[in-house]
Amino acid sequence: MVATSVLIVSLFTLALGNPLNRRSMQLHETRPSAPEGFVKAGSASPDTTLRLRIALAQSDPAGLTDALMDVSTPDSANYGAHLTKEEVDKFVAPKPETVDAVNAWLAENGLTATKLTSAGDWLSFEVPVSKASELLDADFSVFKHEETGSETVRTLAYSIPADLKDHVELIHPTISFPNPFSQVPVFSSPIKVDTSKTNLSSDAVPASCASVITPACLQALYSIPTTRATQSSNVLAVSGFIEQFANQADLTQFLTALRPDLSPSTTFTLQTLDGGTNSQTRSQAGIEADLDIQYTIGVATGVPTVFISVGERFQDGGLEGFLDIINFLNGESNPPHVLTTSYGQNENTISSTLANRLCTAYQQLGARGTSILFASGDGGVAGSQTTRCTTFLPTFPSGCPFMTSVGATTSVPETSASFSSGGFSNVFAQPSYQSSAVSAYLTRLGNTNAGKFTPTGRAFPDVAAVGDNVEIVFQGQAGLVAGTSCSSPIFASIISLINDRLIAAGKSPLGFLNPFLYANPGAFNDITTGSNPGCNTNGFPATTGWDPVTGLGTPNFPSLLAAAGL
Question: What DSSP string describes 156-170?
Answer without folding.
Answer: SEEEEEGGGTTTEEE
